[in-house]
Amino acid sequence: MAAFGQRLFSKVGLTDDQKAQMKEVVAKHRPALQTLRQQLRAARDEITDKLLRPDQLALASRMKDQLRTLHTQMQSVLGGQP
To answer: What is the CA radius of gyration of the chain?
Structure first.
Protein backbone atom coordinates (compact mmCIF):
# COMPACT_ATOMS: atom_id res chain seq x y z
CA MET A 1 0.00 0.00 0.00
CA ALA A 2 1.28 3.48 -0.78
CA ALA A 3 2.64 5.52 2.08
CA PHE A 4 -0.23 8.01 1.83
CA GLY A 5 -2.78 5.21 2.06
CA GLN A 6 -1.00 3.73 5.05
CA ARG A 7 -0.99 7.07 6.86
CA LEU A 8 -4.63 7.72 5.99
CA PHE A 9 -5.84 4.34 7.21
CA SER A 10 -3.70 4.47 10.34
CA LYS A 11 -5.53 7.67 11.30
CA VAL A 12 -9.01 6.09 11.09
CA GLY A 13 -8.17 3.35 13.56
CA LEU A 14 -8.54 0.18 11.53
CA THR A 15 -8.52 -3.07 13.44
CA ASP A 16 -5.79 -5.60 12.73
CA ASP A 17 -8.34 -7.64 10.77
CA GLN A 18 -9.30 -4.61 8.66
CA LYS A 19 -5.62 -3.85 8.03
CA ALA A 20 -5.06 -7.41 6.86
CA GLN A 21 -8.09 -7.17 4.57
CA MET A 22 -6.79 -3.87 3.14
CA LYS A 23 -3.42 -5.44 2.41
CA GLU A 24 -5.11 -8.34 0.63
CA VAL A 25 -7.22 -6.03 -1.52
CA VAL A 26 -4.26 -3.84 -2.41
CA ALA A 27 -2.08 -6.85 -3.24
CA LYS A 28 -4.84 -8.37 -5.37
CA HIS A 29 -5.25 -5.22 -7.46
CA ARG A 30 -1.64 -4.00 -7.56
CA PRO A 31 -0.79 -5.52 -10.99
CA ALA A 32 -3.89 -4.05 -12.61
CA LEU A 33 -3.21 -0.64 -11.05
CA GLN A 34 0.38 -0.70 -12.27
CA THR A 35 -0.79 -1.50 -15.79
CA LEU A 36 -3.33 1.33 -15.68
CA ARG A 37 -0.70 3.79 -14.43
CA GLN A 38 1.57 2.83 -17.32
CA GLN A 39 -1.27 3.29 -19.81
CA LEU A 40 -2.11 6.69 -18.36
CA ARG A 41 1.53 7.80 -18.56
CA ALA A 42 1.71 6.69 -22.20
CA ALA A 43 -1.51 8.53 -23.05
CA ARG A 44 -0.33 11.66 -21.25
CA ASP A 45 3.00 11.56 -23.09
CA GLU A 46 1.23 11.14 -26.43
CA ILE A 47 -1.04 14.09 -25.72
CA THR A 48 1.91 16.18 -24.64
CA ASP A 49 3.98 15.31 -27.70
CA LYS A 50 1.20 15.80 -30.24
CA LEU A 51 -0.89 18.65 -28.93
CA LEU A 52 1.13 21.10 -26.89
CA ARG A 53 3.23 23.93 -28.26
CA PRO A 54 6.70 24.56 -26.78
CA ASP A 55 5.42 27.43 -24.62
CA GLN A 56 2.63 25.20 -23.30
CA LEU A 57 5.13 22.45 -22.55
CA ALA A 58 7.26 24.88 -20.58
CA LEU A 59 4.25 26.05 -18.56
CA ALA A 60 3.21 22.45 -17.90
CA SER A 61 6.73 21.66 -16.72
CA ARG A 62 6.72 24.60 -14.29
CA MET A 63 3.30 23.57 -12.96
CA LYS A 64 4.51 20.00 -12.50
CA ASP A 65 7.49 21.28 -10.51
CA GLN A 66 5.15 23.33 -8.32
CA LEU A 67 2.96 20.29 -7.70
CA ARG A 68 6.01 18.26 -6.68
CA THR A 69 6.98 20.97 -4.21
CA LEU A 70 3.47 21.06 -2.77
CA HIS A 71 3.40 17.27 -2.55
CA THR A 72 6.66 17.28 -0.61
CA GLN A 73 5.28 19.93 1.76
CA MET A 74 2.09 17.91 2.28
CA GLN A 75 4.10 14.80 3.07
CA SER A 76 6.13 16.65 5.68
CA VAL A 77 2.93 17.97 7.30
CA LEU A 78 1.43 14.48 7.34
CA GLY A 79 4.60 13.03 8.79
CA GLY A 80 5.72 11.12 5.73
CA GLN A 81 9.05 10.97 4.02
CA PRO A 82 9.40 13.19 0.94
So the answer is: 17
